[in-house]
Design goal:
Blueprint lengths: L2 E7 L2 E6 L4 E5 L2 H6 L2 E6 L10 H10 L4 E5 L12 H18 L5 E7 L1 H9 L5 E8 L19 H22 L11 H4 L9 H6 L3 E7 L8 H5 L20 E7 L12 H4 L3 H10 L4 E6 L10 H4 L5 H4 L3 H11 L2
Parallel strand pairs: 4-5, 4-6, 6-7, 7-8, 8-10
Antiparallel strand pairs: 1-2, 2-3, 3-5, 9-10
Helix pairs in contact: 2-13, 3-4
C-alpha cells in the first residue's frame, strides 16, 4: 500500500495512505520499531478521518513504543450511507492492507464511534492477537426503540414516523439502524450479527478479544440513547454520581458485566423495559459475551448538547472536555 509522508509534530508522525486512511506513530525510530499493537479507529456516520485525530495523537504520544494507530477512511462521508455490511467489508479490506504493510504488528484493537462500532463488529478480522474492542456511543440495539434516538423526544408518533422515512435520509444504513431491512427475506442485519452467520463469524470474532468495552453517554446525546449504547434494559440503567474519579471527571459509573449463558439470559418484561421483541433478542445475544461498561456524563459542560461528539473529542477546540474519556481508554488499553 503506497503511503504519502506526512508532517512530524510534537514527536508524532502521520502518514496518509493513497488508498484511504491515516497511520499515526511515533517519529522516533526506536519507538516505532518496537510498536507491535495496531489500533484501528473507525468514525461514525457522515464522518471522516479527522474525527479521531486528537485521540490517535494521544494514544501515540502516551504509548509511543507500544501502538501504531490507523484512522480508517475507506467509509468516509456519504459512503457511510451504503449499509453496515458494505462498510464492514470495506473496513476489513482496508485493515488487511494495513497489516500486509506492517509485518511487525502482532496485536490489534478497534476503537469505534457511533455507527462505526457496528461496522467494526461486522468487519473484524482474524490473524492477530485480538486485544480491545472499544465502542463509543454505538447503537448496539439499533435506533428504532423508545428513546433510542433522543432528539425524537420519546414521542411514539415521531419514532414511528422516523422508522418509515429514515431510509430516505440515511439509505441502507438507516434501514439497518431501524431494523427494517429484510434483504432476500433474511432477518434484520443487526439480528444476524448476534450469531455466526455462514462464513461471517460475527460473535466468534467478538469473543476473541481480551476486552470488550462500551463508553456511553448517560444524557445529552441526541443521536444515540443510553440504553442502546450500553446494551441495557431500562431497569438496568445505573444510578450515577458526579466526579467519582478526579482523573476522569466525566466518567460517572463503571461496571464489569460477565457473559451469561442461554439459561441466564432470560427475557425480561419487555413492556416495562421499553424494549420490543427484536431489541430484547439483540440484548440477550450480545450479553453472551462479557463487557466493560463505562458511563459518561457531560451534563455540567458548556458543550453538553454536543455530547455525541464530545465523548470522542471530534474537534479538540470545541470538544476538549471529553479528553478524560480518551485518557481512560489509553490508561486501560494494555491492562
Amino acid at each position: 500500500m503506497e503511503m504519502k509522508d506526512g508532517p512530524v509534530e510534537n514527536g508524532i508522525c502521520s502518514s496518509e495512505s493513497i488508498h484511504g486512511g491515516t497511520d499515526v506513530c511515533s517519529s522516533k525510530e526506536s519507538a516505532t520499531a518496537s510498536a507491535d499493537h495496531l489500533v484501528v479507529m473507525v468514525h461514525g456516520i457522515l464522518g471522516s478521518v479527522t474525527d479521531w485525530r486528537f485521540a490517535a495523537e494521544q494514544f501515540v504520544r502516551i504509548l509511543p513504543d507500544k501502538v501504531i494507530v490507523h484512522r480508517s477512511e475507506r467509509n468516509a462521508s456519504m459512503l457511510t450511507l451504503d449499509g453496515v455490511d458494505v462498510m464492514g467489508e470495506r473496513l476489513a479490506e482496508e485493515v488487511i492492507e494495513v497489516i500486509k504493510q506492517k509485518p511487525e504488528v502482532r496485536k490489534i484493537s478497534f476503537v469505534s464511534h457511533s455507527v462505526g462500532g457496528l461496522v467494526a463488529r461486522y468487519g473484524t478480522i482474524y490473524g492477530l492477537e485480538a486485544m480491545n474492542f472499544i465502542t463509543v456511543a454505538t447503537p448496539h440495539l439499533g435506533s428504532r426503540g423508545n428513546k433510542q434516538v433522543p432528539f425524537l423526544f420519546g414521542v411514539p408518533v415521531f419514532e414511528k414516523a422516523a422508522t418509515s422515512v429514515i431510509h430516505l435520509i440515511f439509505r441502507r444504513t438507516g434501514r439497518h439502524l431501524f431494523l427494517t431491512d429484510d434483504d432476500e427475506g433474511n432477518p434484520p442485519l443487526l439480528r444476524r450479527m448476534i450469531e455466526d452467520c455462514g462464513e461471517l463469524h460475527f460473535m466468534s470474532a467478538l469473543c476473541t478479544f481480551t476486552r470488550r468495552v462500551i463508553y456511553s453517554n448517560v444524557g445529552y446525546d441526541h443521536i444515540v440513547g443510553w440504553r442502546t449504547s450500553s446494551i441495557r434494559r431500562n431497569s438496568e440503567l445505573p444510578k450515577w454520581e458526579d466526579m467519582v474519579n478526579e482523573k476522569y471527571p466525566h466518567i460517572v459509573f463503571e461496571e464489569h458485566c460477565k457473559a451469561c449463558d442461554a439459561e441466564q439470559c432470560e427475557p425480561s418484561s419487555m413492556e416495562d423495559d421499553g424494549l420490543d421483541k427484536l431489541e430484547e433478542e439483540l440484548l440477550m445475544g450480545l450479553s453472551r459475551v462479557s463487557w466493560e461498561k463505562v458511563d459518561v456524563s457531560f451534563h455540567a459542560c458548556r458543550q453538553r448538547f454536543a455530547a455525541h461528539s464530545v465523548i470522542q473529542v471530534k474537534d479538540y477546540v470545541a470538544h476538549r472536555e471529553g479528553a478524560d474519556v480518551i485518557q481512560h481508554m489509553i490508561d486501560h488499553l494494555l491492562t
